[in-house]
Amino acid sequence: MAEPLAPYAADPGNSRGRRYPEDAPNHRTEFQRDRDRIVHSTAFRRLVYKTQVFVNHEGDLYRTRLTHSLEVAQIARTVARAMRLNEDLVEGISLAHDLGHTPFGHAGQDALNECMSDYGGFEHNLQSLRVVDQLEDRYPSFPGLNLTFETREGILKHCSLANARKLGELGERFIDRRQPSLEAQLANIADEIAYNNHDVDDGLRSGLIELEDLTEIRFLKDRLEAAEHLYPGISQHQRIHEVVRGMIGALVMDLIDSSTRRIQDLAPANIETVRAHDAPLIGFSEPFLETQRTLKRFLREHLYRHPKVRTMTERAHEVVSTLFKTFFTDYEKMPPEHAHRAKLAHEETGVVAAARVVSDYVAGMTDRFALQAHEALTSEPTAKG
After folding, report:
1. What's 31-308's CATH class?
2. pLDDT value of position 376
């Protein structure tokens, strides 16, 4: 039997509610309803064909945004259970956090942000919120998925003051420098754990990182030596798995221990005490925080800046830029539904609103669809690596 929630955990019975009032769900909580809506959304299904690091067609075993989101949810739920936080809320946030990601990962985001520089910019975190608030078109009673405040709060991990002022209640914490729920804090850290460690995994499996490279970092070297000591003679595949499993396990244990100590020191009576605190309560100890920083530097040097990845990144940047500029120049080159939205936005509000419609269309593409669309527009095959 599950333990009762901690008094400072998010309680679905005390949710701040939805943008559009609805009857309470039957046989599930408000946060479970959020999670279910996310899982059944079109944007969630598209994540299976969106890049984590490698372009989707590079291999079937590399991670996509969908597998990444599932792995974030698993890590976050494990920690939430240990700390008596709300598993359903942290799962929903984890599954939704990348819904606004462009094709080709951060390369696509950077390209789209450049294209939108004169029209408000593009940031995948805000785009994820836009997806669940407006772009999902499933329900006749309201736009988007009409998620609870708590889930939307967790999706919006960071935000500029300028954008925060446009978001009403949801943006207030960035203006007032308050904290989100512990579940939102946890989903953010679980994303870091999954991202860094699984990029090591994919880098090793692709051959862009060698096992010997791991010895540059004490934390990774210790995991490798432990695997070889416990299981001498194991295969390369098993050795990689043991290293990554050990890395995640060590980070999760430190996260639980250090976060629990902070919570015990503060002794928050409820979620509002958490929100009013001057710093996040969920986080690593200082030694493990430095480990995460070192791991990020390692990945930047050995994986993200690898010539093969840079070639894919440069090509992805060119594809996304070309798509946006072509559609923005001629709305009719988009499918009729999107062309109509862009023309209507232009007529009613102006060019900035029209640019956002074009941006929404390009951002929603999968890797393979973007490549096909680019080829159709330019009449030249898109290079595949």
Report:
1. mainly alpha
2. 94
